[in-house]
Structure formats: structure tokens, C-alpha cells
């Protein structure tokens, strides 16, 4: 066994997490970092709602308001929702397919540290007093005119963070294709694994357009090129195309794992096999495919013409079909089931009508002539938040409550979880439902203030009150985490008692090697099949033997830190002579880390079967 993993104390624990390549610990790192950025983005949202709580308010105005608005959207999408999705993927997918780790553990760690370096770099802009101020989409007509370094922080930070996401997606694709346990055919994979598979494919094809767009923006701003300057032959609409070719699949990169979470939750707490499994799989794949056909519905008002608008409108409406299939299958799964209304199940039941509202308003926006009226109004803000909060955030809260015992070995308090749910559910609808009507009454999005006697005062007040309910829910959730970490109920392997998939067949939390013996998967819902035959363990596909494990490494931190330093240096190249030097040093650090990774002959270590037998005897005694 690695001696590092046996040490105790704060310093050793920090070093362990800095150098880990274990997917389960990387999941915890994603959860902590994503949770922190979720709190930051939520605080920024509160500032926005405080500013709009009454007419002619002066809480935050002008550039500061634009910075808070921009950073709220950017933080929530890129630095909160994405890493929290990756936290669940890392924690669950290798266990669900019977693997001992992801295909490339080192790359998995590098993906996290690149994301984290990019996120810290982006938020460093606050300390320089130069946060991005052109909206989370950073349309180049605004971002090219921004005088300070805020947009540079945006472009460089998202470039680093996006590289981490891209290699993470590739890693999960290879893992799911190559590392499934014997008998785990594609059509026996749990729905969460299927949604991860399709999401990873979307990441593979969606992030390169964003990478290209950000590169062009960086070259325009730091190196004097003119890709987006119309006066010099550039074209600002090209940025919109590149951004939304990424941006709309990004919605499904977030929503498809949410669908996967709820598919697991509904089946477990209805004590039934998921209704229409095959149709759910094909609906997931179809949504992923169609997600690339609809990006220009964000651009109906840019003058693409009626033919282009009609094509993208029809393609957008077509996505409603596979999504509807999913909704009905979830309802049929619950129909006739023995339902337990646990905290995850409450989020699942609340998700269906909430997400349907977001979907219906999406179809309304997809009608191009109507979109000319809705565009850039609070109607779009309401629609977007019903999809992202009513879909993704509800799923993240459900997934965290559902798999928390598998990640940490303790149960979150179900009573406190339900308090969180009701506060959040009530606050969410209070905040965003009324914004549909604000939009229809003509309130534009992104405005810092409004005049009295426009008929918007009451609706904005109600919306802001709802935001404080969501803040209260978040505080209760944090309290729940702290309280149960200290004296929470110790979780069994099958923490909920009704687990159907094989992650519930091993101890909670999972051992570092995941499975002592690679399991033999005998059908869909493999653990449930074993339970129906009176067994408590999975049928093994191999005898107990030595298990090969990868060594920890500090090099992912080194590589990510080098890119952080390089970005900081190149950003100041036009004002300070040392900018290029610092940038070069940063790149040298990154290249040195990559060289050392290639040069050092690292064979890992083995956990011997005698140690595994000792673990068995300790479990029996316990």
C-alpha cells in the first residue's frame, strides 16, 4: 500500500488531495471547488436582485453592475454547474460500470487542476478591480470595446478551464467504451452512465469551437489581430456563431447528466425498473445529436434571413420530442411504484413540472417571429433559469443527496434535506416564474435599474424575495453537510436499501480499489437481479488477485500552475516589459511538467491479495 495514504494529519491530507489521481478523491475536489463557486455565483445573484428590488436603486450601478452580472452567469455555468456535474461523474460512473478507475487517472487529475486554475484566474479579476463586464456570452461588439483587462481574464481563464473539461470528457468516453465489467453491454449500462457517455461526446465536439473563439479573442485583444473588428475587415457575428455552436450543446452537457440523475432516483425510490429503458437511451442520443442543429436560434434577430430562421426553429422544436419521451417514461416509472419520498425523490418530482415549464417557454422562443418580441427581455431570463435551475440545479441537489453516502460514508439528514428542498423550491418559483410576465411587460434583461410607475415594481420585489429563500435553503444545506460530517448516520453499502445498480454493492465510501473482484454483470439493474436471487453481493468475474494501482503525482498541479502564470504574464504584456518574460516562464513550467511526465518511468504499485483478505476479515469482525 502507498504509505502516503496511511498517514494522518492535516498536512498529509492536503498533500494527498494535491497529488491524488483517485477518481473518488477527484470527485470530492470537484464537489468542493464547484460548491465554492456556486456560493460565489449565488452571492452575485443576490447582489443583482438587491439592486432590482426597487426602482431607481443605487446599491450597485454602472460598470460594477455589469461586472457582477457577467461574473454571475460565467461562474454559474462554467465554474459551478460544470464541475458539480463532473463531481457526480467521477464519483459514480467508474463504480456503475465495474471499473477500478477511469482510463487515464493522471489526465483526470490534470483536468481538475486545469479547471481550478482557470476558475481562480477568472475570479482573480475581482482583486485587480477589472472583472469582465460584457455579459457571460462576451459578444465581441462589447468585449472588444472593453478597456480594462476584465475580458482578458475571461478569455484566458475560460481557455484554461475549458482545456480541463475537454480532456475530462475524452477520459470518460474512453473509460465507458473500454473499461466496462464483463457482461456490462451498452444496453445494460445505467442511465446516468449513458448520459455521461453522450455528454462526453458533446464535450468533445462542442468545446473546440469555444477554444477557437477564445483564441481569436485573445489574439485580437493582446496581439493586435482583427478577427472581430468590422472596421478592419473582421466580423462580430462570427463570434456569436462560434460561441453558440458551443453554447447550445453546453445546455445539454449540463441537462443530460441531470436527466441521468433523475432516471436513477426515480427507479430507486419507485422500487421499479426504469420504464422504457431502450427508448430512454435512444432519446438521450437523439437529444445529443439534435443539440448541434439548433445554435442559431440564439441569433434570430441578427439578420440571418427567414430560411435560416425557419430551419433552426423547426430543429429546435424537434428536440421537444425525445425530451417528451423522457418525461412520460419517468411518469410511467412512478406509476404503480412503491414510492418513497426521500429528499432526492422530492427534487425529482419537483423537477418534472419545473423543467416542463422551461421546455414550453423554449418552444415559444423557438418561434422566430415571436422571438423578436421575447429577445433580450426578462422572458428569456425566466426561460433560461427554469431550464438550468429547474433542471440542472435540482438534479445536482438530488444527486448530491443520493450519492453523498457513497462518496463520504455518512447520510445527510433527510429532515434538513427536506427543509432545504421546500425553501429552494418555493424560492425558485417565486423568483423566476414572475419574470416571464416582467418580460412580457417589456422589461429588458441586463438593466441595472428601472423607473417607477412602469408596472414592474411589485414583480421585481417578489422576485428578489424569492432569491433570499434560495439563499436560506443554501445555508441549511451547508449546515446539513457540516452537522452530518461530524455526527451523521454511518451509511451501509446499499445506503438507501433499494439500490439497483452496482455502485451500491460495495462499501460506503468505496475502497480505493473499488472492487476486490471485477463483477460479472448479468443484466440491467445488476444488483437488483442478485437481490431477487437472495444474494447480497455481486457474482465475481475473476478470483481475488493482486490489484495494480497508479501512483499519486504532483505534476498535474505543476502543469496547471504553469498555464496560470503564463496567462497572467501575457495579459500584461502591453503595459509591462516583464509580461512576455513571465508568460515564457509559465509556459516553461508547463512544458517541464509535461516532459517529466513523459520521462519518469512510473509503474504504479500493487495491492496484494493478502491485504484484500485482511480487509475481508476486518469487515467480518466489524
From TrEMBL:
<dbReference type="GO" id="GO:0022904">
    <property type="term" value="P:respiratory electron transport chain"/>
</dbReference>
<keyword id="KW-0679">Respiratory chain</keyword>
<feature type="domain" description="Cytochrome oxidase subunit I profile">
    <location>
        <begin position="9"/>
        <end position="522"/>
    </location>
</feature>
<dbReference type="GO" id="GO:0004129">
    <property type="term" value="F:cytochrome-c oxidase activity"/>
</dbReference>
<keyword id="KW-1278">Translocase</keyword>
<keyword id="KW-0349">Heme</keyword>
<dbReference type="InterPro" id="IPR023616">
    <property type="entry name" value="Cyt_c_oxase-like_su1_dom"/>
</dbReference>
<feature type="transmembrane region" description="Helical">
    <location>
        <begin position="68"/>
        <end position="93"/>
    </location>
</feature>
<feature type="transmembrane region" description="Helical">
    <location>
        <begin position="105"/>
        <end position="128"/>
    </location>
</feature>
<feature type="transmembrane region" description="Helical">
    <location>
        <begin position="554"/>
        <end position="572"/>
    </location>
</feature>
<dbReference type="Pfam" id="PF00115">
    <property type="entry name" value="COX1"/>
</dbReference>
<feature type="transmembrane region" description="Helical">
    <location>
        <begin position="238"/>
        <end position="262"/>
    </location>
</feature>
<dbReference type="GO" id="GO:0046872">
    <property type="term" value="F:metal ion binding"/>
</dbReference>
<feature type="transmembrane region" description="Helical">
    <location>
        <begin position="458"/>
        <end position="482"/>
    </location>
</feature>
<keyword id="KW-1133">Transmembrane helix</keyword>
<dbReference type="InterPro" id="IPR036927">
    <property type="entry name" value="Cyt_c_oxase-like_su1_sf"/>
</dbReference>
<feature type="transmembrane region" description="Helical">
    <location>
        <begin position="344"/>
        <end position="364"/>
    </location>
</feature>
<feature type="transmembrane region" description="Helical">
    <location>
        <begin position="307"/>
        <end position="332"/>
    </location>
</feature>
<feature type="transmembrane region" description="Helical">
    <location>
        <begin position="384"/>
        <end position="404"/>
    </location>
</feature>
<keyword id="KW-0408">Iron</keyword>
<dbReference type="InterPro" id="IPR000883">
    <property type="entry name" value="Cyt_C_Oxase_1"/>
</dbReference>
<protein>
    <recommendedName>
        <fullName>Cytochrome c oxidase subunit 1</fullName>
        <ecNumber>7.1.1.9</ecNumber>
    </recommendedName>
</protein>
<feature type="transmembrane region" description="Helical">
    <location>
        <begin position="578"/>
        <end position="600"/>
    </location>
</feature>
<keyword id="KW-0813">Transport</keyword>
<feature type="transmembrane region" description="Helical">
    <location>
        <begin position="191"/>
        <end position="218"/>
    </location>
</feature>
<dbReference type="GO" id="GO:0020037">
    <property type="term" value="F:heme binding"/>
</dbReference>
<comment type="similarity">
    <text>Belongs to the heme-copper respiratory oxidase family.</text>
</comment>
<feature type="transmembrane region" description="Helical">
    <location>
        <begin position="416"/>
        <end position="438"/>
    </location>
</feature>
<keyword id="KW-0249">Electron transport</keyword>
<dbReference type="InterPro" id="IPR014241">
    <property type="entry name" value="Cyt_c_oxidase_su1_bac"/>
</dbReference>
<feature type="transmembrane region" description="Helical">
    <location>
        <begin position="274"/>
        <end position="295"/>
    </location>
</feature>
<keyword id="KW-0186">Copper</keyword>
<dbReference type="GO" id="GO:0006119">
    <property type="term" value="P:oxidative phosphorylation"/>
</dbReference>
<dbReference type="InterPro" id="IPR023615">
    <property type="entry name" value="Cyt_c_Oxase_su1_BS"/>
</dbReference>
<keyword id="KW-0479">Metal-binding</keyword>
<keyword id="KW-0812">Transmembrane</keyword>
<comment type="function">
    <text>Cytochrome c oxidase is the component of the respiratory chain that catalyzes the reduction of oxygen to water. Subunits 1-3 form the functional core of the enzyme complex. CO I is the catalytic subunit of the enzyme. Electrons originating in cytochrome c are transferred via the copper A center of subunit 2 and heme A of subunit 1 to the bimetallic center formed by heme A3 and copper B.</text>
</comment>
<dbReference type="GO" id="GO:0005886">
    <property type="term" value="C:plasma membrane"/>
</dbReference>
<feature type="transmembrane region" description="Helical">
    <location>
        <begin position="27"/>
        <end position="48"/>
    </location>
</feature>
<feature type="transmembrane region" description="Helical">
    <location>
        <begin position="153"/>
        <end position="179"/>
    </location>
</feature>
<keyword id="KW-1003">Cell membrane</keyword>
<keyword id="KW-0472">Membrane</keyword>
